[in-house]
Amino acid sequence: MKTIKYIEMWESNKVTNNLYKEVPYNPKLDISKVLVSIDKSCNDKIEELHKLDDINEMRKETSKTQRQRTMKLKAALDQKGLHTHLVDGVYIPFNPNWKQIAINLSGGADSACLTFLLADIIQKNNYKCTIDVITHSRVYNARPWAGPISIKVYQSLKDLYPNIICNRITNYIPPELEHGSIGNIIESRSVDQICVDSFNTYIQHENRYDAIFNATTKNPSMDIPTEDRMRNRDLAILDIGLADVAMNKETFWRCLPLKIVEKDWIVKQYIDHNKLDLFKITRSCEGDGNGVSILTGLDYKWYNYNKDKIIPECGQCFWCAERTWALKENNIEL
Fold this sequence. Notes:
Shape: globular
Radius of gyration: 22 Å
């Protein structure tokens, strides 16, 4: 890793730390009681409105009350604020009062890395908090090994942190609705992105998580980035706002603290935390059985009879190039 790049990264993280200062942590505010009080007040008002004879007036005032509830909930969450922990130059939000959080864990290196960093924060600070993992089951037909790999990664993390890593929750996304199949549909968003965001909101409502984390990282500083990269990861640090790394979702925070770092930083965490064995279990390659590569024809029908075989990486996709670049930047070979 080049020293100059670290300096640039730390400078950029000063920017994100200033963003978190927009919502300073208030340890004295009992946010749980405040949120319950807001809900109760609004619900009581809505019940009173249902006694009105004029149905149109009732609907109008109910809608107004619901909007006011949203504003009050967001204001309360901002008032509670965010406490941050500095990890190798990166500020990761984590409030001492949180009891249960979740993280989107795909089986890739980025999400596994953020999971063990969060578990380390809990462990080192003796926080009374647990982590559930959410896995979005995708492209089962073309990358059938993705599911089993995500289970292996989850189990490895659970073995490392048995009292912190708890449930694994799965969400199914039909391959016919993936971005690769039909592209974007609404305001530059694909159906699978909408499904992920919607499911996260749904499962938070069901389980009352204090925060849900996502481990999206910045595109790498490779000399010639491959063309199939995700363009929304071409992030300009100075252009980001608080909502890019921590979004207020009324009753919970949606946190993406790694959006300002690249894959080489991720690999460095595995080295620094002595977790390269875990890194070797993760898989970044998005080559599949439907593409033109050494994986051609290795679809779910083939996989049903070959689950014990080691699946090679395609070596052609952006994700393979990014992983190779990150390892090279850290001067290691696996």
